[in-house]
Design brief:
This protein is α/β, with parallel strands linked by helices. The chain folds into three domains: 10-151, NAD(P)-binding Rossmann-like Domain (Rossmann fold); 153-306, no CATH class; 321-391, RNA polymerase sigma factor, region 2, helix turn helix motif (Rna Polymerase Sigma Factor, Chain: A, Orthogonal Bundle). The chain is 41% helix and 14% strand. It has 14 helices and eleven strands. The strands form two sheets. A seven-stranded parallel sheet has the order 4-3-2-1-5-6-7, sandwiched between helices. A four-stranded mixed sheet has the order 9-8-10-11, covered by helices on one side. Helix 1 links the parallel strand 1 and strand 2 (36-42). Helix 5 (128-141) packs antiparallel against helix 12. It binds nicotinamide-adenine-dinucleotide and magnesium ion. Residues 153-155, 224 line the site of magnesium ion.
Length: 391
Amino acid sequence: MKSSNSPGRTFTIFGATGSIGTQLLEILEQTPSLGRVRVLTANRRAQCLAELANTHRPDIVVLCDPSQRAELEEVLTYKPTVLVGEEALDDPSLYDSDLVINALVGFSGFMPTVRAIRAGKTVALANKESLVVGGAWLSQELQGDFSRILPVDSEHSAMWQALQGESRESIQKIIITASGGPFREWSNAQMESITPKDALKHPNWSMGAKITIDSSTLMNKGLEMIEAHWLFGLPMERIEPVVHPQSIIHSVIEFVDGSSKAQLGPPDMKVPILYALTAPHRVAYPNPTIQWQEASQWTFEPVDHDRFPCIGLAIAAQQTGGMAPAVLNAANEVAVARFLQESLSYKQIAQCVEAALDASVNEFTQTNVNDVVSYQHADHWARRYAKSWKA
Ligand code: NAD
Ligand code: MG
């Protein structure tokens, strides 16, 4: 995968106010030699966006919620071009940077990835949902060569790092690690009464709400298996999830000669974010390191598919192909939002997604539909279905 590293390099950052966006901006603030921020976008948090803009001085600032324009402009201490409204994400001027970083959450990140790829840009992709929904379209557009998509997800960054100097043909399988989330040791009966507060407490990572819930259900690992399938060109059967509660080994590549390579480090997203900006080189940064002299244990266990059905739903959706992954993604986004609003129980997240996938079989019969509008249509259909789904 390509990347370059120079102070004159320009960045567009979609989702600047989120967990990934703010960590990326901290790195850029501390390491100005990496390049310059040209565009920042956010959904709603006008004040936070304005403060980030005041620090980084992008030429263009985009706020999707038009009702907060006045608040944004009041806090800004300089005069960038301000664009508002969701349609502003389509503006071609946003895509005119050397690197587009997509840190949006959910389906909202799909079209920015599509536009950046169409504009011939390289995308540092945190928004795994883009690949889940439209991996087949992207593969066609990129002629199977995903080197213009640089993974930001920690597991995929680990795979990418372990693959430096190796050929794709020498991969036997990928072992993708999962923390197991906060409910790893909860019984099926205990899991009946999980509250949003319980599920928002991740043992190892501090992240946005949607991915935190996805990590707790293991849907996140299912989405990441699909992400790995597209990025590294391996069939789903050769991508093996394993629970590793300490989150030190971020993933493993097993090669055809029986050797394995892994990438390790304390759980910290700044490592994969920085690597996406500098790969295949490394730049000094004071990230925490493993304390080898402290007594510790790294453990591994298989995934319990009975207590965590979401991972199996994701694998099945990818194997079905066509619109199924887009349906899975949209139904999951809605089910997670409904769980957080307490209109679904924790276990109903998986039930809602499964029901949407089952119902979609009659709705989307073509498996090779490969235009962007079809994905948007499938997304809207699954959202409507999941919003009105009742157990
Ligand atoms: P977050 O919720 O903290 O931030 C999301 C960002 O997207 C915010 O800036 C928000 O303003 C913007 N946004 C949200 N909805 C939008 C919409 N409809 N239109 C336009 N903008 C919108 O999310 P996050 O945790 O930073 O995750 C971002 C992506 O990175 C997700 O795809 C997630 O799976 C992935 N990821 C996150 C982490 C992590 O540690 N947070 C790790 C690996 C991968
Ligand atoms: Mg991950």
